[in-house]
Structures are given as C-alpha cells and as structure tokens.
Specification:
This protein is mainly beta and 493 residues long. The chain has six domains: 1-29; 32-121, Sandwich (Immunoglobulin-like); 134-220, Immunoglobulin-like; 239-324, Immunoglobulin-like; 332-398, Immunoglobulin-like (Sandwich), CATH 2.60.40; 405-491, Immunoglobulin-like, CATH 2.60.40. Helix content is 6%, strand content 42%.
Length: 493
C-alpha cells in the first residue's frame, strides 16, 4: 500500500469519526425541550401563570422541579407531568420571588435527562386577592350528598382562605370564619344536615389583607346519603344510577360568527334546566329542555334530574355540570420560520387568534398535529394549514421556499434610466423575511469591491465613486441558516 493510500485512509477515518461525534452531539441536543412561556429572565410574571414548553416526542413524559434557588425543589420536587406540555401551579407561585424551573425528560428506559433551567421573577402583590367560588358542589346545586367535601377555585395572589358554613344566609353554626390556610378543599368533620340549604362564604387573604365582600354561595343536601346514590340492581346485577349522567364536555367551542348558538344534550333524564351563571350567587334560568340557545361566551350550568319517590315524599336526584362556552375563530398566520439542519428543515408556524388550533403541512384534510413545530422535514416546498378545532375554518399560507441562485439577477444596467440600475437579491415572495446575512461582490480578479446589505437598494456599479467597466462580476451570499450561494452576473452599459 502506497503512502498516499495510507494517508487517504487516515483522513477518511478522521472525517467519519468527526461526523459521528457531530451527529451524536446533534442528536443529544435535539433530545431536550425548552420553555416557551415565560421566556428565560422574564420579570413581573403573574402568580397564576401557566408554564409551557415545546413538545418532544419519543419520551415517556416530563418531570418538573421549581425552587427559589438554582436547581432548587422547595416549591415542586420532580413532579411527574405526564405528556402534557404545560403546568399551572395549584396554589400559585410565591410573590416577588426569583424562581428556577427545570424540566427533565423521562425516557422509556434509563435515567431522566435534565434540560436547561428557566429563571423568572414574579410580580409583587399590592392588592387583596379577588374572590373565589365553589366548584364542588357548584353554586345552587341540588341533592348534594351530606358527606360531600367542599372545593373552590384558586384566587390569584391568595395565601389562605377564611371559610364559613351555615344553614341560613350569613350563618356560621357549622364553621365560623375558620382559617383553613392555603388549601382549596375542606372536609367537614361531621355529616352536613339532611335536606337543608347549606350557605358557604369564602374569604381569600394575602399579606395585603382579607377580601370580605365576596358573595355567599348555597347548595341543597339530599334527604339521606343513600337516596340518590348508585345501587346494584337485584334484577340485572348492574350498577344503576338514580341521578342522570351528564356527558357534555367541560368546554364547548363556538364560532364567533355563529351566535346565537344552540347547545344540545343527548343525555337521558326526566327534566333539564340550563342556567347562565353570573359572577355572584344569582343564576338566570334559560331553558327547561334538552337544548339551550346561548347568545354570548361565558359560564353556563346544566342541571339534569330524575324524580324519586321516598317515604318522605318525592325528591329530585340531580346532576349538575358547569360548562365554559368559548368563542373560536380562524387563525391568522403571522410568521413561518424555516431552519435548515443536517437532517432536514425545522418549520415553526406562529399564529394569532382566539381558537384552539392544529397544524398540517400535508393538505387541508390533514393529518393534523397539535404542535406548531415540524422537524426533520425533507427539502421541498410546503403549504402550512392551520385548522380551528371547533370547526371555525382553516387558514393556509405557503412556507417560504429556500433562496436559490435564480433569486439573484444575472445582469443589471446602471445607466440612470430607472430600469435595472441596481443589482440586488430579489425576494422570492412578497413580504419575504430575508435570512441573508451579507452579500460580497468581487471583480474578475477576486478583489472585494462591495459589501452589500440585503435590505439595501443594491449596488450601483461604482467603486470608490468611480463607475466600474462593463464586465462579469462575482458574488457570495452568506446566510444565517444555510450554506453560502456563489454566482456571477454581468454589468452592462
């Protein structure tokens, strides 16, 4: 074997080994996710803010840690999040604090992989917290079991709650203004009175003070624990429900241009009642049928009931459900970013709008995905399709294609007639965001005669204020995310 052959084999080995190292580094870098909101270093983040991050496929889920010091876990200690790409703190973040959040990817086998740490600061609390409201049982619920637990919504900035429970308006004989601390539920130590109105008053507090002007809420208990509870049928041996089962979703999306909108249920019950739920204790009865016409987004409550005969008389076994009616609209595509990588393009679609959206690069019929980011896409032209999940329309826009040699003019004529007087890169589409960093222009001897900003009017054919002769010239365009493009053009006079 000649010395040249040995040298060539060594060089080939070095190049292959270097590529392997690069590939491993590249793949490792692709494993980790990053936070979308808030951005690293953000200040004045709300205490009830929802952390969101980019989805990473091929893993069993995420672990989230949050602390008040770097790599700290005093707020949240490696909490399993599952495959969700968001986290909303149950009791809110501490105020006026610098917080550190770390996500770890959980592989199907092996140890968790820790990703970069997020640092952000929360707002300072300057006012009392807003009022909360019951979510179990909901306000005005009927036939509530006497062994029920109370649950309420988190009041942003609250650090605790005073709770009163009575059987008359403003009553407190069951619980008198008890400080239940920073929790969102309460289990009465004894059964609640049967067939009674139960009045509940929740007063959130924080370091500024206690909110006392909150509206009292009420629900009604059943005659006994067992009256409306499910039972095993002696005939069929199956579990039978006395109260109707409500299967409507928690959130109903409607298109903004479809109001008024009719919501219907196929649930089986002897009777129905639909209410518009206001911020206070009052509700407005809208319908007593299986459907209701809503005229605006908001919170609505459906109540379904069956009538049961007992020794104490007829009672209603009732089920209730609170429904959020939200308005949707077609998306507006604001930006499409294309990044060229070793294994293909990464395409990120940014949108605005009040709907819930899904994304496709294939066709208007999909398939669609929840993530707006597409990775390792082959080098070809695409159209982005964004579809509203509530059926309010699909928006499409061409993905900006890669810049090629044909986007640079082959000649120009700087003679002052207003036509082709400047040589410059030509954007392939309207409103194209250039990814060219700089363009260099050389004469036939390789001498640099112009460094050109791609957003400028272009080269006028002069060098040191002197007109350059008619000839061929060379250019090199450097990019932020793709290899340089080299070519030549002709200056004609």
């Amino acid at each position: 074997m000649t010395q040249n052959n040995i040298l060539n084999k060594k060089m080939d080995f070095i190049m292959r080994f270097s590529f392997l190292l690069f590939s491993c580094s590249f793949f490792y870098g692709q494993e980790c996710t990053s936070f979308i909101y808030p951005e690293n270093g953000s200040n004045n983040i709300d205490l009830d803010a929802t952390l969101t991050w980019q989805e990473v496929s091929g893993f069993n889920g995420y672990l989230l840690s949050i602390g008040t010091s770097p790599q700290g876990r005093d707020i949240l200690d490696r909490k399993p999040i599952g495959t969700d790409t968001f986290y909303k703190p149950e009791f809110g973040f501490p105020s006026n604090s610098t917080l550190y959040a770390t996500l770890s990817l959980v592989p199907y086998d092996g140890a968790p992989i820790a990703c970069d740490e997020l640092v952000f600061s929360t707002i300072s609390v300057t006012t009392k917290p807003p009022c909360s409201q019951l979510i179990t049982p909901i306000n005005n619920a009927g036939s509530v079991t006497i062994i029920t637990d109370l649950e309420w919504e988190y009041a942003p900035t609250a650090t605790g709650y005073f709770l009163s429970i009575g059987t008359t308006p403003n009553g407190s004989e069951i619980l008198n203004n008890e400080d239940v601390k920073n929790v969102l539920s309460y289990k009465p130590p004894e059964d609640l009175p049967q067939n009674s109105n139960i009045y509940v008053r929740i007063k959130p507090y924080n370091e500024i003070g206690t909110t006392t002007a909150c509206t009292e809420e009420v629900f009604t208990t059943s005659f006994a624990v067992y009256v409306c509870d499910p039972y095993i049928s002696e005939t069929t041996g199956e579990l039978t429900y006395r109260a109707p089962q409500i299967n409507l979703p928690n959130v109903v999306g409607i298109c903004s241009d479809e109001l008024p909108y009719t919501i219907s249920t196929d649930d089986i019950a002897e009777g129905f009642r639909w209410y518009l739920t206001n911020s206070g204790s009052e509700e407005t009865l809208l319908s007593e049928t299986q459907s209701v016409a809503v005229s605006s987004p908001g919170k609505y409550r459906i109540e379904a009931y069956n009538t049961i005969s007992t020794d104490a008389g007829n009672i209603e076994c009732t089920s209730s459900k609170l429904i959020d009616v939200v308005a949707s609209e077609p998306a507006t595509i604001t930006e499409i970013k294309v990044t060229n990588l070793l294994l293909g393009k990464t395409i990120a679609v940014s949108v605005t709008g009040g709907g819930q959206y899904e994304y496709s690069l294939t066709s208007r019929n999909g398939p669609f995905q929840d993530s707006s980011i597409f990775i390792e896409m082959p080098n070809t032209n695409y159209t982005a399709y964004v579809r509203d999940k509530n059926g309010c329309g699909t928006t499409e826009r061409s993905v900006d294609r890669d810049i090629s040699l044909k986007d640079f003019p082959s000649f120009f004529t700087p003679n002052g007639d207003g036509i082709n007087d400047y040589w410059q890169f030509i954007p392939p589409v309207e409103n194209f965001e250039s990814v060219i960093e700089v363009i260099y222009i050389f004469n036939q001897f390789g001498t640099l005669i112009k460094q050109l900003n791609p957003s400028s009017i272009g080269w006028d054919g002069t060098f040191n204020n002197k007109e350059m002769p008619q000839n061929d010239y060379w250019f090199k365009a450097n990019f932020l995310n793709q290899p340089p493009i080299k070519g030549h053009f002709t200056l004609k006079r």
